Amino acid sequence: MEKKRKVQQLIEAALEAREHSYAPYSHFHVGAALMTAEGRVYQGCNIENASYTPTICAERNALFKAVYEGERNFEMIAIAGSPEGPCTDYATPCGVCRQVMMEFCDPKTFCVIVAKSPEEYMEYRLEELLPLGFGPANLKG
Ligand code: THU
Questions:
Q1: 10 Å Cβ neighbour count for 48?
Q2: 10-residue mean pLDDT series, the chain (141 residues)
């Protein structure tokens, strides 16, 4: 499939995932859709907690679901996040999510798409978002 079409479908999946957000404290709703190298898609949303720190971001929710299923090769992730209601802003991934991406994704090739809609989005490589990141390769002698 043509790359642009693939990106737009992934953004649709992130926007759909955003509908599942549980964010009674921040009212900031985030959805993510992660695509594997084989084209399978895993969705995640942010899930907050009254004790605040157990909150998980949409990106890590999607990644952990996929890793649980045995996936290890990822091509891109689309993220759609803004205050509740229509998605009106760009939500770039937090530092913790960038580090988790670093564990499972090649920083030179993994593509992070930050979207408001299938027509309005920005595209980054993980290495741009996490320069000089520390990952599994650093632990190999
Ligand atoms: N959040 C995400 O899910 N992903 C991001 O990229 C940024 C922040 C969530 C965490 C929390 O539930 C809410 O957005 C406000 O920080």
A1: 18
A2: 93 98 98 98 98 98 98 98 97 98 98 98 98 96 73
Cβ of 31 closer than 6 Å to ligand 1, yes or no, is no
What are the residue numbers of the active site?
59
φ, ψ of residue 123 to 5 degrees: the values are -130, 130
The rounded Å distance from CA 11 to ligand 1 centre is 17
Q: Is 57 in the pocket of ligand 1 (CB under 6 A)?
A: yes
> How far from 93 is each of 67, 79, 101, 138, CA to CA, in Å?
19, 8, 10, 22
9 CB less than 6 Å from ligand 1? no
Say how far apart CA 40 and CA 66 lie, in whole Å. 9
CB neighbour burial string for 84-102, b if at least 16 within 10 angstroms, e if fewer: eeebeeebebeeebbebbb
